[in-house]
Amino acid sequence: MKIHEYQAKEILERYGVRIQRGIVLEDGPDFAEQVAQAFDHWGGKQAVVKAQIHAGGRGKGGGVKFCTSKEATVEAASSMMGMMLVTHQTGPEGQKVRKVMVCEALDLAKEHYIGIALDRERCS
């Protein structure tokens, strides 16, 4: 099963894990306005825009942008939306970005990545 970053964060938050807050947006007529509102949601200083695709390496492929203004946040989200994001996990064809997450920018001391593998042979 593949889930997006925002979906994983929702699950972790339900179990009391502190997460980076974010708002997931899809393209639409008021997309830029929603991105601007998301930037203001955390005090309007800095934000991170993250493409939501099923692949790692999004930052190296241009799918994660740190922004220090509302205008830069809107520009980053607008340019990311609909792009074919190519990473080491997507192959040369890439994946189309259909959702972006606008997150609060955090000064992290430590970050953890979690992966879960299911062995169906052992679960029967």
Description:
The protein is α+β, with helices and mostly antiparallel strands. 29% of the residues lie in helices and 19% in strands. It contains four helices and six strands. The strands form two sheets. Strands 1-6-2-3 form a four-stranded antiparallel sheet, covered by helices on one side. α2 crosses α3. The longest helix has 11 residues. It is globular and about 50 Å long.
Q: Show unreliable segments.
A: none
The ordered H/E elements are: HEHEEHEEEH
* Intertermini distance: 18 Å
Beta-strand share of residues: 15-25%
- Mean pLDDT level: 89
Number of helices: 4
Radius of gyration: 16 Å
What overall geometry do the principal axes of the alpha carbons give? globular
Coarse structural class: alpha+beta
**Count of DSSP strands:** 6
Largest sheet strand order: 1-6-2-3
Largest sheet: 4 strands, antiparallel
Compact summary:
The chain has 124 residues and is an alpha+beta fold. It contains four helices and six strands.
Keywords:
124 residues; 4-stranded antiparallel β-sheet; two-stranded antiparallel sheet; 6 strands; 29% helix; globular
Question: What topology does this entry show?
Answer:
Blueprint: H1 5-14, E1 22-26, H2 31-41, E2 47-51, E3 64-67, H3 70-80, E4 84-85, E5 95-96, E6 99-104, H4 120-123
Antiparallel strand pairs: 1-6, 2-3, 2-6, 4-5
Helix pairs in contact: 2-3
